[in-house]
Amino acid sequence: MGRGENAPTRVLEKARAELAQSALWLAIDDGALPRNVAVSWLRAEHALTWRLHRATLGLRAPAFRTVRDRHRARMTSLASQLQPYDEATALSFPAAPLAELLLAFETASPSVVEAMALGLELMGEHPLQLDGELVRWGRPRKRREAEPSLDADGTATLEHTVRQVIALATSLYPVGTLPTTSSSLNRDAGRHHITQDPRELAAALVAGARTWEIHPYYEARYGERGRRFTRSDSAWLASLGQDPTAEQQIEWLAGVLAARGMPTLLLESHLNHLHEALIDILPHRRSTYAWLLERAHGLYLRRTEALSDRSLGRLAARFTPSSPPFRGMGTILAAAVADHATGIPRALESVLVWAKDEERFGTAWVQAVDELVDAAQRSVQRRRSAERRA
Hints:
This protein is 66% helix and 2% strand. It is mainly alpha-helical. It folds into two domains: 7-178; 180-390, no CATH class. Strands 1-2 form a two-stranded antiparallel ribbon. The N and C termini lie far apart (82 Å).
């Protein structure tokens, strides 16, 4: 097969031609690209490289070890170049095309990951270099000599990837003036502030996906609309590091979510995952993100005033009805009882209105819910009685 006859090759060559004619590329050629735009492009490349590296960690084939090693080296190089400029850009970043690329990594398909790797290599084929106030091209990277071979899903993913890379370039320059808001991640979330750093956005989306993986209750109750709110809320949380009212904001969010059926244990879990993801991609900012652990610990202390971890675990293990087919409902119920006991309005009621739906779950399930809630409330009372005697 001659060069150009392979479908992935045609997709990549067309994307290279479009990027070469983009305002971003032409401004670099002319030496006229503002440094803050270049910083945002490099931040986006760093975020996507980090995400690709994470996506290949579980793939054991030799080809993916090569991808993983190559992108780990690129990620290290980008981090080194970006770190001195962390606070030096005031550009509103276009989150929508970046989020489209990041979310594609939530698949476990090797073909899709391979296609994403091919598409993202477009960003680094002609690497940018920051030199003081100057932005210039670095030494061109060598392209793969072998023609890429992808299945139908991989080719479709590659086409989607290169479209979003081009959208990213055209969104960044000429420079927009409006800040990126939650509406670029979630059409139902209004227009509240979210992080303007692509790397923090990547971490926020990873943390949200991890939280949903660990707590299947989210999927069972809230579905795709809930996923969108997790993404926008997580991107907002990632922006609060310098906010002096962060503690009050977390308290407010904890109350809002509990009133909608999400015990504070879930927010506590998410804050821990968000911290983990942020320091993974930005380890030099560990002190900046320490507040997330502090707020998670605050939620933990309040919950355990009513119900110890040991009691919660024992109660959760008692909840063993055969349906619905997801784990962790006993933990949700016990945590909701603890929130109710600490005075959070509607914390228990909002869980029970869904959990006690006989048409959805059946009589045996509802009976098991009542039994666990009763047992949890008795445990709370015993703890309080013991504290009064002490």
